[in-house]
Design goal:
By secondary structure, the protein is mostly helical. The protein has helices at about 10-35, 50-80.
Length: about 80
């Protein structure tokens, strides 16, 4: 019989904190992207944004990708996947 408070419980808790942090960043990035893009129509080039704002959108997009990579990376690192 295994319990939730076994010897591996502390290790699992430490591993989940970075994943939760990245997940929170990804959720925040989604909120920011949706709020920025809500008023935009179909625009060419940089979508009517200046260089800094356009690069900011790309950085937020990269953060959104991290949210999906962390669970797979964790599974790969532990040998599960």
């Amino acid at each position: 019989m295994t319990t939730a408070n076994g010897p591996g419980a502390a290790v699992r808790g430490r591993r989940s904190r970075p994943a939760m942090s990245i997940g929170l960043l990804a959720a925040t990035a989604w909120v920011a992207v949706v709020s920025l893009l809500r008023g935009m129509g179909a625009m060419p080039g940089t979508m009517g944004l200046g260089f800094v704002a356009f690069e900011g959108i790309w950085m937020l997009t990269a953060l959104l990708r991290w949210g999906g990579l962390v669970p797979r990376g964790s599974a790969f690192a532990t040998g599960v996947g």
